[in-house]
Amino acid sequence: MAQKLWDSRFKKKLHPLAEDFLRSISFDKKLAESDIKGSIAHAKMLGKTKIIKKKEADILVRGLKSIKKDKKFAKQEDIHTAVTNELYKKIGKIADKLHTARSRNDQVVLDVKIYCKDKLKEMQKFIERLQNEILKFAKSNIEVIIPAYTHMQPAQCVSLAHHMLAYLEMLERDKGRIKDAYKRTDEMPLGSCALSGTSLKIDRKYVAKLLGFSGISQNSIDAVSDRDFIIEILSSIATLDMHLSRISEDLILWSTKEYGFIDIDESFCTGSSIMPHKKNPDVLEYIRGYTGKSYGNLLSLLVTMKGLPLTYNRDMQHDKEALFNSIETNIKILELLSKLFENIKINKKNIDDIIKKDIGIYSVDIVEDFVENEGLSYKEAHKLTGMIMKDFYDKGGKIKEDLDENFFPRDSYKRLMKKTFEPTKSMNLKTSIGGTAMKLVKAQIKKWDRCLRTANR
Asked: If DSSP codes are grouped into helix, strand and coil, which group holds residue 185?
């Protein structure tokens, strides 16, 4: 048997430099299990349709099952050649029949889709695991009130649990994008061959059934020449990474001395080689930094694909490294964040001290009280409250105890003191659907409990 799958018309060997340059085994060896699985289904189909003898198909299947996925294939051209050559060593010339009615063009798409389907399911589970850990963290700190920020300035009082539930919403949409990408990956391409199909009487639906695909591709050119399913996966992961980066950034900021909201467990931090006192949130910083590479993986494949004529071109070999990196790194990141959330400690006193420093955190409550009880337009209420805040700050006021009725018109001071100027009161005023009032947050937690329990069944 020829060492390569394609060299029957060639008199010269591939130049060593060219061979080394074109070799993809260093990364596509990750597809070994998928390649063997797809080849087993293909062999069974060849036997079922009598394109080859049933006995030959059985020998092919047994031989393929005996090839270990961790076999060393370092000197082979690609994983397809490696598996075929290894099979030849085990069963002899019958191995030559395995490539009947298929091409490396449709074979590689099949392998990648099998890999992606398995990994996307795994990724969904890890997203749900992170959601569960964040939900536990929210429930255990439901009474904690923090200042929420806009423009990096203290804005209003919110429940810490409410802040955590925002992450769950983001991750749920990420999970939905992963599920949608899975649907478009779940289309079996084998049987498209090089680009036009085959005259042999194959049974593509049978192969799809054996491999657990929900359908088969309907156009042989499209099946071998596009990689939009990978682009969609990389896009979904890039969006997920954007959210994971923002979560990491919040935790990094909250762990600084300036904030002091949380304490990250030492097992997820590192020190400094020169400053003995340092405790650096390196895991979170790496996650934040990795997002750039994730975006690069997506962009690299978009740029690779944008100018390619139909059908298959060797440029497409560059899809795999980006795909493998994004998927496998993100599974690690999701697992790490889940563990990190298990061990975060809250510094409630530091949070309370920050809230007490600034009466401005209640400014919206004052505006809305003036609208509701003084009959002012929102513009008038906003202007009046702004004047009150300016006067208060100009006189050096920093905490609510410095505030007295001289700052407010008519009898609004007593009314405001009863309903606001205290974090829990302020938080519980926000009763619109989706707001941070405690009763709404508790209802959301119950909803997420049900949602994630159902997902984990």
From this structure: helix
318 is an active site residue: no
Say if 16-100 and 105-353 have the same CATH topology.
Answer: no
Least confident of 338-352, 403-417, 435-449: 403-417
| β 215-216/187-188 pair status | parallel
Q: How far apart are CA 34 and CA 327, in angstroms?
A: 16
Q: What are phi and psi of 54, to 5 degrees?
A: -55, -40
| Marked catalytic residue, from 151, 199, 267, 432 | 151
Q: What is the mean pLDDT of residues 283-310?
A: 96
Catalytic residue chosen out of the listed positions 140, 214, 272, 377: 272
Q: Check: CATH 1.20.200.10 for 105-353?
A: yes
Looking at residue 457, what is its pLDDT? Answer: 66
Q: Quick check: is 162 catalytic?
A: no
Tokens at 85, concatenated: 């050559």
The answer to whether 282 and 270 are in contact (CB under 8 A) is: yes
How far the first Cα of the chain sits from its last, in Å, is 49
Q: Are residues 329 and 296 in contact, defined by beta-carbon separation less than 8 angstroms?
A: no
The CATH fold of domain 16-100: Fumarase C; Chain B, domain 1 (1.10.275)
Is 0.85 surpassed by the pTM of this model?
A: yes
Domain residue ranges of the chain, discontinuous segments joined by + = 16-100, 105-353
Residue-wise pLDDT for 102-133, tens only, equals 999 999 999 999 999 999 999 999 999 999 99
Q: Which two tokens stand for residue 364?
A: 């919206």
How would DSSP label each residue in 420-452?
Answer: SSSHHHHHHT--STT---HHHHHHHHHHHHHHH
**Three-state DSSP class for residue 145:** strand
C-alpha distances out from residue 229 to 52, 111, 129, 421, Å: 33, 13, 25, 53
pLDDT tens for residues 129-148?
999 999 999 999 999 999 99
Mapped to the 3 state alphabet, what secondary structure does 444-457 carry? HHHHHHHHHHHHCC
